Amino acid sequence: MYPSLVVFVLAFSLATLALDNGLMRTPPMGWLAWERFRCDIDCKNDPSNCISERLFRDMADRLAEDGWRELGYVYVNIDDCWSSMERDKEGRLQPDPDRFPGGIPKLAKYIHDRGLKLGIYGDLGTHTCGGYPGTTLDKVAVDAQTFADWGVDMLKLDGCYSNVTEQAKGYPLMSKALNATQRPIAYSCSWPAYQGGLPPDVNYTQLGEICNLWRNYDDIQDSWDSVLSIVDWFSDNQDVLQSAAGPGRWNDPDMLIVGDFGLSLEQSRSQMALWAIMAAPLFMSNDLRTLSSEARAILQNKVLIGINQDPLGVQGVRLLKEKSRIEVFWRPLVDSASALVFFSRRTDMPYRYRTSLLNLGYPSGSYKVYDVFTEKTLPVLKHDTYFTVSINPTGVVTWLLTPTMHWGQAQEAMKYNFVEEAIDSTFL
Ligand code: GLA
């Protein structure tokens, strides 16, 4: 296997297919209510934790004031259970007046004033998954226009209570309707998740043309098992999924649950690192008001965010599944850089995993290695030098690699007596 060849082939094939709204050239980042706040509409008992204007304003404040926005976390996204049970007299969706007394345009302004963007949720079907009014085919145009009039920047369109035929009509129809509003509105389609996530039922070429991102698989829950099942599904099907993704069009393995209740710190690092490798949208679903400093440090890790946001936009893959229950993930990045994640599925003790870059398919040469979580630069590593990483149970070791000089270049340079420091250090 020769990873760099994959880069060229993919980069070339990505050039022409993306959705025409110019949005999300790198995976979107922000906050999304669902996993943490669900359908809690009990604002009388707990006004700060229910789906309400107040919750979204609070999250906007935190994103703007706690350093998130500058890192790229700009979306504040409403999920299900925001609307009234009835449409208005003109047939438009309307928010529950008790919980959104200012209406959505005012909330949108609050969010925009802070340099952020607003996302909203709809469902192609008779009802949303939570039982609120859905967007049947005859309502697609009016709902798209309503969202645009309100100043919405992103729509997640779920698929409960609709059939295969309605979805095949409705998802492309909404894409057109959003474009027709002339407001740039990013479009997240849950369509593939309702069709099993795989061809032939799912046409990823078409999805890339009409949606900016899409949910492929089950909902994430606040547990390590849930994270593992998602990672497994995405890795088992990576041959199909990798080529579907690219600038403007992303597979969505669902929200980050770092900072919630289900993951240890090791597991939180693993989720963040694997989501970076998978070029996944980074939508946190947590309570930014009470986040621990450890969770914040993981979610705000600049190098990991840089890997996730790499402009080449090639989704990474699982390279290896060892009998030892170590798995190695790899993602190619711009300028021949790459990221490696050594992931332990073990539950006994830190495991010493020994390998070389050559074993992992790297071309000859020497590489600068930066350990993303220890924040240390390691000695320059030659492709065929064996090394050992110690990986904690359910944890990761995450490396960013940049080639110093390829072996061929080094030999050429030596011929002309340009023996530079970089070349010396290839002889470890
Ligand atoms: C579905 C979606 C979730 C969430 C809920 C809301 O299950 O997959 O992400 O939006 O509906 O009811």
Characterise this structure:
33% of the residues lie in helices and 21% in strands. With 428 residues, it is an alpha/beta fold. Strands 7-6-5-4-3-2-1-8 form an 8-stranded parallel β-sheet. A 6-stranded antiparallel β-sheet has the order 9-10-11-16-13-14. It has 16 helices and 16 strands. The chain folds into 2 domains: 291 residues, TIM Barrel (Alpha-Beta Barrel), CATH 3.20.20.70; 111 residues, Immunoglobulin-like. The structure holds alpha-D-galactopyranose (GLA). Alpha-D-galactopyranose binds next to loops.
Number of helices: 16
Q: Distance between the terminal alpha carbons, to the nearest Å?
A: 25 Å
CATH architecture of the largest domain: Alpha-Beta Barrel
Q: What is the CATH domain class of the largest domain? A: Alpha Beta
Classified in CATH, the superfamily of the largest domain is Aldolase class I
Largest sheet: 8 strands, parallel
As for the CATH topology of the largest domain, it is TIM Barrel
Number of domains: 2
Low-confidence sequence ranges: 4-18, 417-428
Helix percentage range = 25-40%
Q: How are the strands of the biggest sheet laid out side by side?
A: 7-6-5-4-3-2-1-8
Which band does the percent of strand residues land in? 15-25%
Rounded Rg: 23 Å
By DSSP, the count of extended strands is 16
Shape: globular
Small molecules bound: alpha-D-galactopyranose
Mean pLDDT: 93
What structural class results from the helix and strand content?
Answer: alpha/beta
